[in-house]
User: Which sequence fits this backbone?
């Protein structure tokens, strides 16, 4: 499942990095088989390391390829129904296996102060709060670093739990040129600056509490009185509060567990004058603190635990993600402000240059204006003289203008008369044109009638000739019958002359 892999990615990277024989960021597959087999065994998966031989054609893998193989071949086989305590249990086992592989890189150091148990606890805290980021010096190589603010948070809580006062300015002086710490660097800073001279028992207790706070999501620990279920008496127990449960023990050593109160979003907390009432699905638990301040602290802690009991992500992981998101937002805001400041600087520089140019231009304009004022003085005198001359000319022009107006009125009167005459002429022309068009129409009609008469005359002439021919033939025939001895010479029939057949023009 993707959530579990993301939670243990940093610890797996430490084990992966410790298996690398060079600084190339790659590990040969034979070394990775052991780590893969151990992880698979913890997850009740066997034989998951066998697929490494056929995964990619190279003999070694970088961390990105190895993580992809774990996601597809190992963690993808797990169900998505694990509860938060189950996830914590798997994370603890995987962190322990990875620590066994990489602890030699951190245990063997000069002048150690922290015992191995505390180093492992800090390792788990580091893997929880650190980030996997690309190595800027090598391509395709990653590194796990904890942000400076997260290191300051861990160091401040550790120093405060040891009874010392946290000096933020001192830590800023150490980390002002650093954006993040690797685990070995964080160990060196803690041991050299904050943990020297502390008793080992106190140191173990402080680091253990720190690990419980961050890794196990322990919200609060302390003594409370609890009313019994069968015997209604108040007995003292040591309570450990987590988002999913409230566990109580007989003693502070947390060895003899007496019971577990399961918490979910349906639970709620009520309070009386001196008691805390915890309502769950099972029953109502009655708790009591020794003072009013403790009662308020436990009441607030219980409400926080109930509100965080419904998620699949740990409380401290959620806080870390929020802080990480806030840092990214702050970086983006600073980047935006820097860009805005650069733009404003460029704009101010441009405005400054524009102001200098405007001042130079204003100086030039001022000098030009002074010259123009001198010229205007001379021109004013000339203009005064010209005004006097202009007054004389204006009087002459006024007289000429009056004469022109009189002539213009006469001209306008003549133009009006010409316009009237022209309109009359146009009317006459229109009448003439209409009469001309009527005469042309009548002439065309006469020509048409003449042609019709000519055609009719020609038809009548033809009929007349035909009648004459028939009459001549009849006369010849009659003569032959009356005087057969006389030979009559038949002449050609009469045809109309060419002149009579000419078409009318």
Assistant:
């Amino acid at each position: 499942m993707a959530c579990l892999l993301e939670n243990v990615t940093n610890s797996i990277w430490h084990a992966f990095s410790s298996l690398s024989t060079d600084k190339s960021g790659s590990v040969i597959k034979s070394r990775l088989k052991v780590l893969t087999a151990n992880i698979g065994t913890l997850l009740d998966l066997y034989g998951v390391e066998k697929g490494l031989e056929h995964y990619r054609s190279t003999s070694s893998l970088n961390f990105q390829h190895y993580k992809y193989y774990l996601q597809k071949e190992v963690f993808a086989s797990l169900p998505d129904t694990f509860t938060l305590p189950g996830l914590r249990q798997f994370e603890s086992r995987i962190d322990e296996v990875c620590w066994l592989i990489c602890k030699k890189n951190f245990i063997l150091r000069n002048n150690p102060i922290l015992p191995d148990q505390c180093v492992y606890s800090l390792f788990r805290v580091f893997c929880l709060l650190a980030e996997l980021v690309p190595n800027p010096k090598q391509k395709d190589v990653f590194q796990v670093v904890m942000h400076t603010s997260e290191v300051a948070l861990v160091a401040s809580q550790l120093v405060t739990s040891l009874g010392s006062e946290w000096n933020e300015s001192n830590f800023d002086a150490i980390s002002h040129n650093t954006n993040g710490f690797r685990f070995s660097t964080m160990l060196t800073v803690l041991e050299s600056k904050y943990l020297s001279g502390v008793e080992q028992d106190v140191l173990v207790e402080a680091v253990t509490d720190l690990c419980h706070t961050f890794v196990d999501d322990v919200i609060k620990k302390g003594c409370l009185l609890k009313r019994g279920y069968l015997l209604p008496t108040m007995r003292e127990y040591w309570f450990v509060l987590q988002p999913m449960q409230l566990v109580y023990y007989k003693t502070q050593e947390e060895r003899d567990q007496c019971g577990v109160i399961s918490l979910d979003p349906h639970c709620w907390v009520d309070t009386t004058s001196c008691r805390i009432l915890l309502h769950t699905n099972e029953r109502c638990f009655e708790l009591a603190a020794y003072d009013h301040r403790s009662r308020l602290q436990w009441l607030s802690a219980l409400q926080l635990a109930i509100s965080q009991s419904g998620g699949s992500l740990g409380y401290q992981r959620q806080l870390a993600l929020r802080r990480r998101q806030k840092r990214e937002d702050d970086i983006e805001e600073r980047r935006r402000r820097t860009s805005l400041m650069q733009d404003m600087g460029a704009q101010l520089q441009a405005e400054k240059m524009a102001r200098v140019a405007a001042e130079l231009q204003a100086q030039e304009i001022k000098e030009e204006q002074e010259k123009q004022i001198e010229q205007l003085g001379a021109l004013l005198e000339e203009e005064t003289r010209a005004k006097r001359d202009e007054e004389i000319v204006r009087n002459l022009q006024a007289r000429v203008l009056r004469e022109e107006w009189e002539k213009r009125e006469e001209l306008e009167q003549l133009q009006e008369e010409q316009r009237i005459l022209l309109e009359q002429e146009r009317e006459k022309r229109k009448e003439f044109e209409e009469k001309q068009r009527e005469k042309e129409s009548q002439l065309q009609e006469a020509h048409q009638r003449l042609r019709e008469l000519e055609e009719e005359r020609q038809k009548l002439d033809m009929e007349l000739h035909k009648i004459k021919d028939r009459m001549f033939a009849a006369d010849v025939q009659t003569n032959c019958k009356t005087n057969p001895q006389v030979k009559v010479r038949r002449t050609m029939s009469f045809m109309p002359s060419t002149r009579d057949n000419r078409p009318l023009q």
About this structure: Confidence is low (pLDDT under 50) at residues 486-501. The first strand starts at residue 26 and ends at 28. Residues 103-217 form one domain.
